[in-house]
Amino acid sequence: MEKDPLTGKVIGCAIEVHRHLGPGLLESTYKHCLSRELSLAGIRHEMEYPLPVIYKEMRVDCGCRLDLWIENQLIVELKSVSAIHDIHKAQILTYMKLAGVSRGLSINFNVKILKEGITRFVL
Fold this sequence. Notes:
It contains 3 helices and 7 strands. It is an alpha+beta fold.
């Protein structure tokens, strides 16, 4: 898969957060710290971005929220879990489909080396 510059910048910011904090904290801590790092890097984003579900032409506000919505084109889902399971992958792929975007990142901060916790998704 070809790597795009925006995704690379976001990963760089996540590595910086992990370098300072390490594994073992709550997802919400990493989300706020990554948001700060993205801001310092000049990357536009929103935390807890509401994602509506359209079901048979009806909007369903069911509480779906993207952890990070980056520059209106990239979904980032954060985790702090012992292992990423298929349901975690299905979640981000479904969010990408609902949002109509082709790129997504899953970042699990609960690893010794962050590179091992990053998964890129492309539709």
